[in-house]
Protein 1
Amino acid sequence: MKIEIPELALVVLIGASGSGKSSFARQHFKPTEVISSDFCRGLVCDDETSLEATNDAFDLVHYIASKRLALGKLTVIDATNVQQGARDGLLALARKFYVQPVAIVINTPEEVCHARNQMRSDRQFGVHVVRNHCRQLRGSLRHLEKEGFRFVHVLRPEQLEDLEIRRVKLWNDKKEETGPFDIIGDVHGCATELEELLDKLGYSREEGEAFVHPEGRKAVFVGDICDRGPRVVDSYKIVMAMEAAGTALCVPGNHDDKLKKYLDGKKVKLAHGLQNTVDELNAQPQEWVKSLHNWLDARISHYVLDGGGLVVAHAGLKENMQGRAAGKVRAFCLYGETTGETDEWGLPERLDWAREYRGKSAVVYGHTPVPRAVWLNNTLNID
């Protein structure tokens, strides 16, 4: 049996005392990746079984987990975690550091847990303890996804013997892509100008084919392909064909995201050029519009490229969000940092995040029109 977990995640082991969580952790994770509540009890009071040290021990668990997650390190919590209150604090940590929370439940029968504890000199407590753990676990299983766990794996003892855990890269991780890159700002339906730009950059295409660069260069679009310009459909067709041919990448812009919501059937205001886009789409075959809808739905918030040295996002991205996967990360990529207020034109008031940026990765973005592109603190706005 195989299960997959993200390379960067907060993995929460859940199971009664004696279920085999610690053995599971030792088998599948590095010792430095696992934070054991029992070990932390020992650190704070020299006794791994001391219930009096529980609060201090879990303060330490959360502290160490915070440090690891801030550095982008996979972190595993080895504790019973059968009570929602214990899980809530860990889910809050995952949200704080924009990582995906994973629940791995070791669902061992109550009698097996009790028998194992009886064989351990440091686990000589009453049968009622394990019984309560198992009862709390049963009551939790159907709620784990609703609580906020992105992935939930429930494992029985017989499934553990041949289990393989495969770590998968986040979709935004394209560090292996080293370019050279041609990063292109907001297109906004200006397909004619896009064609001229690609031609100037050395790309060419045969009739019905995608633009390709003879030296293998790759275009990276910062999003907002639609609205305003006269050739929205053609703009999308150019970008979609290039991505399918492997000669381009494209992150979503806020205009692309709004179009996706419209195609989802949600009520959106047809403003800021969206009406032009809708009018063009109404003249297209429904099969193509569906393919565009699927393409928009598959957009990744941002990309980390060139060994981590380059980040491309529509509206930019702070260092602590780069390479992370969370709703707040996606919102920042689409809209940038805002005050929550709107200006006199009804647009969000934006904060200049780039002035405070001190990250090692260069960030190239668009979204906010500027007279000319100027590097600022290792960031570049090319809109």
Protein 2
Amino acid sequence: MRLPIYLDHAATTPLAPEVLRAMEPFFTSVPWNAAASYAGGREARDAIERARLSVAHMIGASPDEIFFTSGGTESDNWALKGMPVPDIQQRPHGLVSAIEHSAVLETADALRRAGWEISHIPVSPQGTVEPDDVEKRITSRTVFVSVMAANNEVGTIQPIAELAAICRSRGVLVHVDAVQAVGSLEIDVRKLGVDLLSLSGHKIYGPKGVGALYIRQGLPFGRWMDGGSQERGMRAGTVNVAGVVGFGAACDLVRKKQLEQNARVARLRDGFCKSLQDRLSDILLTAAEAPRLPHFAHICFRGVEGEAILTGLDAAGVYASAGAACSAGSRETSHVLRAMGITDEWARGAVRFTLGWDTTEEALDYTVAVLEEVTQELRRQGR
């Protein structure tokens, strides 16, 4: 067994060798700007369009509905800030779930400062959005509802198709942050009935710094960045050709390996959780009764600080996290756990383990042994 053991695949995934090989020519022998009119530029443009097709196939979309961005955060910003506002005298209204990623919550707050009314949709103790809670909060002024496909901290899967059907019946647009879900769930925008969907490359064994926004064909959506005519005039700026090619290659790879790997990882995750429950006391498996992503194990350790556990794990060569990587370093308990009604006594001891294609049973057995030793020592010290 080799150290370190990486159990933070929800934060980012290692770049797959197949993806790196697809990208390499665009760093070296094919360095051309895709906006150039000569043959090299056409070669780069053709590569971008092949990648666009791969991303579209991944989510059941048409290629002309895919717009490349710098990642999930930009896609979320574009989706919410680009919402078409009807010509109404009253203040426009948006709904976001209480457990969204900060990329959505902070963007919604920016809309609030710009004059929107923003409401938060509560979640159940298992971290799921109830369709009735969405329906009763929609008003005549509601423009959009934004609910993530699966939560990035505890892994709960949301009933997107049911929520979207409610919104369609009320003439409300639906945005889905699918950054954490793609690669672990089958995503089909037609079956789900959503209008906008955010994606990111580095969560699916692709490169960092590239993502996409799906915009349903026919949706009147405005230009995001001014300048050149890239991305069909919607997002100006020189396209990251190597990154886009890598994103497309990652989508192709995930489509081939998703079913087999998800089943394998889910078995490992379930065995890991059972071992923890058998060997450690005062632990809570978060959202245990809800549908969850197959690679997520979110555990709360009562009476122990999560950051202290992570320090002990790190010293033993195990990499995990307390929650979203974007919130690392914050001393506040997770907004997701608060929304689920988990008390501070438990929430302060939260640790998220997320498995990947390279995770082995041996590595998880080692992690359980380390956790047993670390938590016992921390409790002895009163930490």
Protein 3
Amino acid sequence: MAPLAGATGVTLLVDIGNTRVKWAILHDGALSCGTPVPHREQSLQATWPAMWGHMPPPGGVIVANVAGSAVAASLAAWASAHWALQPQFITAMPAACGVTNGYSEPGQLGVDRWLALIGARHLKAVAGQHVCVIGCGTALTVDILSAAGQHLGGWIAPGIEMMRQQLSRGTAALSGEFTRQSGGKGLGHSTEEAVMTGIRQAAAGMVDRAVLTARTLLEQPPVGVVTGGAADDLVPFLSSETVTVPDLVLRGLAAFVLQRD
């Protein structure tokens, strides 16, 4: 973890998803990630001190939040009470950090997708290339980013775990618990294998179709940049070239802060 002495030079970056809180310290331009914490398995009042109760006040708290206003209010109240700080909650913009938002109403683009685009734009591994940003969380998202930084739009579908849960809940004959370890790439030889392989193949099919669509628009295939908790479930099923970046949203937050400063 980056040193916290002289905390005014330290920025706490927070990525609040639907099920987990990811966070990092930005210090002297370097990003150091903490351990993600599930925020639905314990009260919010316990989540914040579990992660940061030992830390002196940072110079600022910058947040990407897609978990709703109650979560944002809880974090703001805790930061105010413990650090006398008000977090800054980022929203998508028409343009920032070399990325132009492709939505007709830019503010409607999820902030996690927006910052993932910025993170990908500043990723050395794909510099100068068209990119397909793939978010593997509660939702499965794809966003196409041209080499010039133009966001061309994207798709949203249920994520792998959500598909599994909905299939289990909505189909009496498939009401069993299916583990993430089940299934391979081929045809399933049990209901559990058929479900888990089918779900992963469905998710991979959407991503591969997005890559083909981008190739038509851009006249060359994009490189996939994959992020999110289910990345390891998806990547082996993809046909396209990919790079996995678990902290992509936090990298986007860091780029935003560094450009602003």
